[in-house]
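chain below, 352 aa
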Amino acid sequence: MGKLTTMEFACGLPDFDRPFPIPRNPWNLDYWPGGSSSGSGSGVASGMVLGALGTDTGGSIRLPAAYCGITGLMPTFGRVPKSGCAPLGYSLDHIGPMTRTARDAALMLSVLAGYDASDACAVDVAVPDYTAALTGDLSGLRIGVQRLEEYAGEEDPALAGLFADAVSVLSAAGADVVEISLPFYREMVAADFVTLTAEAAAYHMPDFQTRWSDYAPGTRSILSMAFSFSAADFVQAQRARRVAQHALNDLFATVDLIVTPTSSKVAARIDDLGEFLSDGFLSVHTPYWDSTGNPAVSIPMGFGVDGMPLGLQLAGRPFDEATVLRAGDAFQQRTDWHAQAPALGAPSLAEV
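prediction:
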């Protein structure tokens, strides 16, 4: 249908001094819809579009999905070709669907997924029938659970109850639920940031040197952080990523899926985005999966105390998006959080 807003080069923050619309959250226009795929999140949530593309390097599909109360799937790294997409982090970037439901995400992924030689990162593996996996039954699946409260800092007061209820829904669908601990969590969040900023700086370096003032202040603030890291820091981040991938593979030998909150807090107010940039990322639980490359989906699981959406994150083994979507769809067959829409005249699911 058309173009939707994103933050400049998929990073930074909305800039009121630029001649571009400031994206807003349709649940409350004083709140941010998340980024970088801001317009995709708010466009789907408001009913303007039934599906949209998002890009994810540190959470830019799943975070707007959580903040806007929709479904956002980050496929396995290499599952969807990135040809034609301006890179942010060469070894972290993903393209994926943002939709109202997991079923719609499965339909979109069926079209998006597949090998293309034009992308050096694309992986030539078979694309399954994603919709055939949506049985509504989770019998035989073992799901590892971690709320990650030890890493989150401040939590929304409603989160603990909503997360417990969501896990109970997965259990009622037939899953065996066990407590787990994600290996190298802090290290993978740090590795994502070091890798993202370094690879983005490498891409933008020619323009940094000649057009520095053309970049928005938020973009400059984030990308210039790369200059505080050394080449040794970057190499060490890549070594840590490989160690964590092996440890995570060992964990996935014991569970089929892992569930966490997408974020421990609801979206920030637009007027408070500067504060979010300084410490709000502590509440965000998406970068881990960018560092490891595993597929992960965010689905709505309810509302925080101020009436803004919160998301549930389900992650799976590499190239096993089918099981991730199966669990998301089974959850949505038993709940109606995904069917609720903000009061902006958006059509209901029954009307579309």
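The radius of gyration is 19 Å. Residues 185-211 form the longest helix (27 residues).
thats it, cya
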